[in-house]
Amino acid sequence: MTSNRRTFAIISHPDAGKTTLTEKLLLQGGAIHLAGEVKARGAARRARSDWMKIEQQRGISVTSSVMTFERDGVTFNLLDTPGHEDFSEDTYRTLTAVDSAIMVIDAAKGIEPQTRKLFEVCRLRSVPIITFVNKVDREGKPVFDLLDEVADTLALDVSPQSWPIGMGGVFEGVLDFGTDTISRPEGPSKEFLGKREADVELAGPMAEEVELARHGYPEFDIEAYRHGDLTPVYFGSALKNFGVTELIDAIARFAPPPRPQPSEAGPIEPTRDEVTGFVFKVQANMDPQHRDRIAFMRMVSGTFKRGMKLIPSGLGKPIAVHSPILFFAQDRELADTAEAGDIIGIPNHGTLRVGDTLSEKNQVRFTGLPNFAPEILRRVQLKDPTKTKQLRKALDDLSEEGVIQVFYPEFGGQWIVGVVGQLQLDVLISRLSAEYKVEASLEASPFATARWLKGSPEAIKGFEEFNRANLARDRDGDPVFMAKSAWDVGYQQEKNPDITFGATKER
């Protein structure tokens, strides 16, 4: 059975309340038993899903984590995504592994740049979106303005499923359109809810507003939602636990079960008997005591059983998966079985990489997990030249995870790292020091971007003869043109029409 799986992500701009909402969803699902377990007291402590040293220092989510919990017979796989704008690449890969997403919007700020960026990634893959307008107990934009902003900015039909009765200082609760009940603040702290039938008639402007909200927007259409054309909108406060129950109920009722995944041979259905899956993330050193390395695999089809042998597409020979892991952030437990939609962690020592397909017969290749051309390139300067070997190992590990890309120039000894955002460079230096005991600095590189070369062996060879000073190899040994500018790329494309200068590379 796969129909009781819901694999979803939460996307938002930093500070919109994603960590708090994650905590409350886990609380509702019984995965934690006390509010504050995810976000411990004190500014230095972060969410359970924020475990890396630099995350604790900066107070942001840098890596993607997985949290699995059950509620009312439904298994929820919640994939936490990096909230920082620099982490589009890791976030993109995480969003390839989900079937739906919750978009969290701050009621005072509306659609922010990172929200829009992440939404576009979801749209690329037709990932359906449920919208949660957070912090309605504080002063915010007028509700109709917020809905118009979502509709206009994202070109998406909106269908409100609840409505805030007042906002900020005059906030009285949230009206659920489905049940005609109001969640009201109670007690001196206004943090405890009493849900009851609306025992007062809404009057005046508020009654008109609710009537207009009920009838002025499209009715919820599950097919339009699942096609990515319509978003149901819920209002609430993650901090005060308003609207969270309705949100998790909506995921259970409306969000799609595991969807077919794209492969070279066409979509692979979750009902296929053969066990198949793909690695969308690799994380080294989650447990610093054991120097471990975990590949996160999204199950696409079949029923996985512990001890099964699967063939990674990058290796070609089977590996036995003896210790598959289910996650609650850093906490883990062994998974005896897993179904389509589940995320399992596979411990390995460099065997598995991002983009690898795992299957029983090695006849399937999943597509759509690219590397992106880096926007920032830097030379790596080692402070202790005797640690060259450790540095290469570290760079290879981190490039396998997708934290960086690493390029080995044909000429010159200094290796070059490429990233899509500045923060990744800080992560690189922090992790080199903390996990590999390698002290290094970064210097300016003569190159501005990189392009993967594709073409006939003759065309590539001819190009290499004239451009060796601008060539490097990536960690797979594939040729890469290191360009000094965007003009440089265009010029070489014109001169070499038989060669493709790729801004992405799929594995």
TrEMBL record:
GTP binds at residues 12-19, 80-84, 134-137. Pfam families: EF-G_D2, GTP_EFTU, RF3_C. It is found in: Cytoplasm. Its main location: cytoplasm. This is Peptide chain release factor 3. Gene3D superfamilies: P-loop containing nucleotide triphosphate hydrolases (3.40.50.300), Peptide chain release factor 3, domain III (3.30.70.3280), Translation factors (2.40.30.10). It comes from Croceibacterium selenioxidans. PANTHER family: PEPTIDE CHAIN RELEASE FACTOR RF3. Residues 3-259 form the Tr-type G domain. InterPro entries: EF-G-like_DII (IPR053905), EFG_III/V (IPR035647), G_TR_CS (IPR031157), P-loop_NTPase (IPR027417), PrfC (IPR004548), RF3_C (IPR032090), RF3_dom_3_sf (IPR038467), Small_GTP-bd (IPR005225). Belongs to the TRAFAC class translation factor GTPase superfamily. Classic translation factor GTPase family. PrfC subfamily. Increases the formation of ribosomal termination complexes and stimulates activities of RF-1 and RF-2. It binds guanine nucleotides and has strong preference for UGA stop codons. It may interact directly with the ribosome. The stimulation of RF-1 and RF-2 is significantly reduced by GTP and GDP, but not by GMP. Keywords: Cytoplasm, GTP-binding, Nucleotide-binding, Protein biosynthesis.
